[in-house]
Design a protein that fits this description.
globular; mainly beta; 62% strand; single chain; 0% helix; 200 residues; eight-stranded antiparallel β-barrel; 16 strands; eight-stranded antiparallel barrel
């Protein structure tokens, strides 16, 4: 059974990728089949969108609205079954299927077929996945300017696409009124940790 992350959470323990501590709150609201997340920290304010699977809230975030978060389920044959959304979709979800991967290994070149949220606008493209440290790096033939950043959690690959370095991914594992998040952003091979306690 999936968790319900809705509510206000206090950031109890967290550090940036450069090792500097920060505090604040995280507000999580339902948005159709998704969750909208707002981080209000003593360093930055930013927002994101996320999917809930099992006991995880899997989010992509950005300092602006030019991002696209994708959640892939990794199949035993190497196929990636994805759902994706952007802030402009207002809670609606597109889908895509990436084939050509190697079982047991995410890195490689994939052929993608998918559709937008209206399910009437199909598309195809190629997708390349590499890995540096614990962080996955993605590129797509659909956009030469954007880049993807990702983390793997069990059979899930969480990816966010954006421009520059002001975006990333955050994966929370939720245990009742506590949550532990792992996050990263472009330009690093490191993963930082953020611990939350639910306020209400």
């Amino acid at each position: 059974m999936s968790v319900n992350p809705e509510g206000t959470w206090a950031i109890e323990e967290a550090k940036t990728l450069r090792g500097k501590s920060y505090t604040g709150t995280v507000k999580i609201y339902p948005l159709d089949r998704l969750y909208q997340v707002f981080w209000l920290t003593d360093r930055y304010h930013f927002a994101g969108l996320g999917f809930v699977e099992d006991n995880f809230l899997l989010t992509g975030w950005s300092f602006d609205s030019s991002y696209c978060v994708v959640l892939y389920r990794i199949g035993p044959d190497g196929t990636l079954e994805g759902r994706w959304t952007t802030p402009q979709f207002l809670g609606q979800v597109g889908w895509e299927r990436a084939t050509g991967g190697t079982p047991g290994e995410l890195e490689g070149l994939y052929q993608v077929a998918g559709a937008y949220a209206d399910n009437r606008t199909p598309y195809t493209n190629s997708l390349a996945i590499g890995k540096v440290g614990d962080v996955y790096q993605l590129s797509s033939s659909r956009s030469q300017q954007s880049q993807g950043i990702g983390l793997r959690l069990n059979d899930w690959l969480l990816v966010n696409w954006g421009y520059g370095r002001n975006f990333g991914v955050m994966a929370y594992e939720i245990d009742r009124d506590a949550a532990t998040g792992h996050w990263t952003r472009p330009g690093t091979d490191k993963v930082a940790i953020e611990r939350l306690a639910k306020i209400c």
